[in-house]
Amino acid sequence: MPTALYSLPAEEAVVALARELVRIPTVNPPGSEAPGARVVEAWLRECGFETTVVPYGEGRAHAVGRLRGSGERPGLLFSGHLDVVPPGEVAWQRDPFSGALEEGRLWGRGACDMKGGVAALLVAAREMAFSPRLRRGQDRSPLRGDLTVAITADEERGCLGAAALAQAPLFAGLGAALVAEPTGLDLFITEKGALWLQVEMFGKTAHGSMPEMGANAIAAMVDLLACLEREIGAGGSLRTGVPEHPLLGAPTMNIGTIAGGVKPNVVADRCVAELDFRTVPGLPNDDLLRRVEALARAVAARRPGIRHLLTCRATCEPVACPPDSPLATALRESVRAVTGDEPRVGGVPYVTEACVWVPRLGMQMVICGPGDPKIAHQPDEYVEVRQLAQAVEIYRRAAEQLLL
Ligand SMILES: [Zn+2]
User: Fold this and answer.
1) CB neighbours (10 Å) of residue 397?
2) What residues does CATH 3.40.630.10 cover in the chain?
3) What is the pLDDT of residue 139?
4) pLDDT for residue 234
5) Mean pLDDT of 87-107
6) How much distance in Å is there from the Cα of 28 to the middle of ligand 1?
7) Architecture of the domain whose range is 193-316
8) Ligand 1 centre from 64 Cα, in Å?
9) Coil vs helix vs strand at 65
10) In terms of CB atoms within 10 Å, which end of the chain has fewer, N or C?
11) d(CA 149, ligand 1 centre) in Å
């Protein structure tokens, strides 16, 4: 990275840094985030952070930096990821990895989700390392709590990178996580959990002309799925007895895949389906798992020769943060001051790395970042340059409110 980049004014630095990151293809799979992690680490080191590059498999790595405070206040985590989804089959109008700057936008895969957000966190981190100290004429950091920056690999396949990184002893004393995923600078203070289940039904094979000699695993699966569907209301919402969440609505279920049987004239002895449940606070994933297990057990019990097996493929608990928490308050006030608008406070139905940080490390969370969330994962992805600069200022103000 050219050294001049470190000393650019914030609004120029954030664009240059976002552009540099977009030009590093970190398509997951395979990820190949290590070059991006080195850029992040170099930036943070130059800004005076204690830094670590944490290897994560072949060609992959996370970058973590910490600016130590006095410990009087809980620390703040700046959270972002480096990997991006593939450009897809649809032709782009601009090269997905050129980082074109046109029409007041930075274009490219990851510009919105979320290299723009990562660059804004990094420049705000620089401002926190230098400007409060300079303003106060001190030569030591006046922070009263640590500022930790964690830029991860392997988020797009279910936050696997952050889950591994959270085991490292790098995150003690943190009280809040600011996740810079694209929100158009609105605040998302809660997110749904996800529970992916593989359900298998095992039966007994027999000749198709004598089905009474066998036990049909497909029929048992149809029975179970029908039972699950009966628990589902309009729009795929589960009738769980848990009240609708004011920001997230009802939990949902999607039957994603199903496979079973070999030939028309053979009784199928195995059928497998994959289910994707999205849960809300008040419905822990384990409770839902027990309900599905009970339904599957009941189906197997009323069908002689049928066994079932439930395997949890992925689980992320739903998370939420009180709207009047110090983190949400600091961000709301900062957005208002910087944009002049009252940010919308909402929730998201998908999973971010907050689902790792909040349950494992016990902290508040808010998702707030530059870029329209509807643009994420789309062809011709972009982020508004203006929002990048605004995000830097919002993060800096919020961090000062929490840490100074
Ligand atoms: Zn993302």
Assistant:
1) 19
2) 3-191+318-403
3) 66
4) 46
5) 95
6) 12
7) 2-Layer Sandwich (3.30)
8) 18
9) strand
10) N
11) 16
